[in-house]
Amino acid sequence: MISKIRNKEVKTLVAGNHVKIMQSILDFDYAAGKDSPSVCAIISGGRKSQKFFWGDGEILVPVFTSIEAVKNASIEPDFMLCITSPSSTPRMVDAFFTAFPEAMCAHLFAEGISERDSLAMIEKYGKDKIFAGPSGVGLCVPGSLKLGAIGGIMGERVAELGSEAGSTAVICSSGGMVNELMYQVVASGSAISFAVSFGGDRFPITSPLQWALEAENDPQTKEIVFFGELGGRDEYVLCEAVTDGRLTKPIFAYIAGRYEAKNEKIQFGHAKALAKSEDETSLAKMEALRKVGVRVGETFEDFMSFFTELTKETLRIKGSREWKVRSAVARGTHFSAPAYTGQHATSFTEGILQRILDRETVSSELVSFVDSVFAQLIDHGPHVSGAVNAMVTTRAGRDMSSALATGVLTVGDRFGGAINGAAGVWHGAVSCGTTPEDLVNDYSARRAYILGIGHRKYSVYKPDPRVALLIKQGRDVLRETPHLDIALGVATLTTNKRANLILNVDGVVSALFMDYLIEKEGFTSSEIAQLIDIEFFNSLFLIPRSVGFVGNYLDQKRIDEGLFRLGESDSYNY
Amino acid sequence: MSGDSINGVILGFNMARVAITEYAAKKLFLGDLYSGVSITPENVEEVVKTLDMPAHFIVKIDVGIKKRGKQGLIRLNVPAKDVAKAAQELFALGHDRCIAEVMVPHEGSQEKYISIDVLREGAQVLYSEKGGISVEDDPDSVKNTLISRAEMLSFTPSEKIIGVPLSSLLETMHQYHFSFCEINPYILDGGTFLPLDMAVEIDSSMEEKLPKWVQSHVLHKKVTSAQEAEVLRQDARTQSALNLHTLNADGSILTLFSGGGASLVAMDSLVTQGLQDDIINYSEYSGAPTRDETHAYVSTLLEVLFASKAKNKVILIAGGVANFTDVMTTFQGLVDAFSENLEELKKQKVYVCVRRGGPNQDKGLAHLRDFLNEAGIPNDVHDPSFSLGAVGSLVKQYHELKHS
């Protein structure tokens, strides 16, 4: 498994958010000469991407709310760094290996995962997958993989691990001690083939023996440094493997925890660290290891002195980069934004679309469609809410910006801002294969309005001319119109219930725009879902109607009737 | 033989196995069929009123102590009217919980033994036809069998033991997170499985998920000082782990260790120097406590140090090369606590000995060293180029220096 890790491009999913640990992984990757970070996705809330240093530049890593969403984005991680709570970690593990059955390995950071949960994970994944933990700090294969805090978070040391490999495997119960031992191995002039803290819990998912066998089967590893603690019987299992010849590489070991209280059994820092019976004490376990030929330090100092015997061999990782201390100036900027380069637009509408879709080119068909949409949506008369507000503000003597802002601030679900919501309805139906019947039944069961359906003024008897125009334009250009078809199907049913439940402008603009995106711009369903997520579609109303609000302002300035006051007869005072 | 597994008190730090009362063990296993009662000094009057009048009772101390018979912690054949008195007598011996059950007359030869321990491979079951207090005298009678992990997790053991409802035992263990369960003895009363004595350890990581009443039957180590109680409170309030475990209140070495593994190594290095009996405490902090948390924690530890009657006091601060605990942050908290107690530290001529590494180590170590030097406190402050295993010899040298 270890040499497999060395020979592949590592892709890690991070569940939970620990910025310093993730940054240390990126520093490691950068030093190792990778083209891009191994962290390919983060599961967290409240954001879509997170920024990290990449060398002395910066890079964004996408953030998702669930493992499902990562899969939908066609990202295929094979490692998981799980920094979630003890109770949610087992669920996360199941979700990860269900979504990515080919994935190899996970590190579970949480301390306090129940014994039963660990045993269930051993039963399910113990044979095929490798785990570092529960608890501990993870797994490190120099030059290839840093899965967790292992090796620390200090740039310089992490970079050393990224760029230099050796022949000593460090296998350690404790998260703090694995780093200490890695440090001492390097200080003695040797280097690491891989290092792991299998965790201080009673039931590590991958057992110390399994890790020792990983070292045995790894051609690069020449010897094993093993650190264990009092409690449990793992070392006896190791002894058996030495005796029956499954472990042949030299092992240097220390089993910590010789303090014995007079009248009690002490629970030390780790869950397993309690000697239940005589044979679980550190002295008994050290003796057993010594008997089968393992080099066991009488004291920790003796153990350290063995390190001078470790193979002195360091391999420079190919393509590795020098670590440069990030200067105080190179600290993080406060936000990320693409550089706007829309100088190629030949029309206002084309420029707008390039800008809001963040694309360098946009098809002429979409430009032409949106041109019509904008033309239709610039103004819809002085009676609508936004226009009224813009005008009242103007007559109160305010400036153009204030009048425009007042009009814009009126836009919401009830006025103009339903395009995005309608897009969500049609897109949901198309991607789930919902029929118009099901959709209508669902909304009427919930007594909810379908955004994009219904108009105050227009009805089947008095069709909205703007809608008919846009439909014609779309049908003339597009081969397929799945979103429009759903929308019209829904409108057929709703108009049977009430005559004014027609497909309105919001509904038709959103449906057709998505059909254009798919056929003319090559958008995928998940890219469209992302646009809906960021309220993109409301821009199709806000942009042209801003022109209308400016018009409302200019009109009122030209006429200038003075301050507006609602007449007594216009209101009912109770 | 895991017969002595609950012998002595298992300490109640989180994330380990911890005993529960016999009452809770039986109530969880037997449910409504169980008629025993749990008696505390507070509820004794009320509880005895509910007892079945004509029966005779057995009254036992129920705080996780084993071999209670030999220690005089059991009263047999107590008539209902005298149960309260028997309980009061037992409380007078310094314990605060009893269990009272109807006596089940039986012969010693009926007593059988079973224990189930949750292991990586599955459930290890030990059982013997010759149970009771002398089971350890006849180890050959004890049979040993392993129920596979899959069978254990689904409570469908293929193994059968006559009269023992193994499947429902495994189910109870699963449901209530028992990690270890010993029933010694049980008898088969007309074929019915009747546990007479039952000792259970639960997985304390799941303690908060257990029914509320069970949580009050979890036998945590009793705090032995105000400072231990204070550190428990501090620990409850933080994401990090802080603990204090007093070993010898009148020792001379106050330890302040970082990390579960490194703390063991540092303890070992004291032990190999023969300083075992001089250690005041085992204290380990990890998980990046903040400056304020460290400040409060260290202040509490200093109270313990100052209260010791020993001479030549030492504070040993040791840890490995931390992965992400910031050395500067924690050492700032340390210095805050030291400067508040400067007068007493100097008066008691405390020596401070440090070995630590990790993020910001150079700044952190210098901050502490400068403070100690300026304050005139004798010290040795080392970075990871000084071996973690040698901290014991530093302390030893200091002790010898003082004695010569």
Notes on the protein architecture:
The complex is a heterodimer of chains A (574) and B (404). Chain A has helices at 2-6, 19-31, 67-72, 89-99, 115-125, 155-163, 175-187, 208-217, 234-243, 282-291, 300-305, 348-357, 364-377, 385-395, 400-409, 418-432, 436-445, 465-477, 482-497, 505-521, 525-533, 539-559, and strands at residues 12-15, 39-43, 49-54, 57-64, 79-82, 105-108, 130-132, 138-141, 145-147, 164-165, 168-172, 192-197, 223-229, 251-256, 295-296, 315-316. With 574 residues, chain A is α/β, with parallel strands linked by helices. Chain A has a 7-stranded mixed β-sheet, with helices on both faces. The longest helix of chain A is centred in the C-terminal third of the chain and has 21 residues, at 539-559. Chain A is elongated. The N and C termini of chain A lie far apart (79 Å). Chain B is α+β, with helices and mostly antiparallel strands and 404 residues long. Chain B has 3 domains: 30-102, ATP-grasp fold, A domain (Dna Ligase, domain 1, 2-Layer Sandwich), CATH 3.30.1490.20; 108-215, 2-Layer Sandwich (D-amino Acid Aminotransferase, Chain A, domain 1); 226-403, Rossmann fold, CATH 3.40.50. In chain B, strands 1, 6, 7, 8, 9, 10 and 11 form a 7-stranded antiparallel β-sheet that branches. Chain B has a 6-stranded mixed β-sheet with strand order 12-16-14-17-18-19, with helices on both faces. The two termini of chain B are 48 Å apart. Chains A and B meet through helix 5, helix 7 and helix 11 of A and helix 4, helix 8 and strand 17 of B.
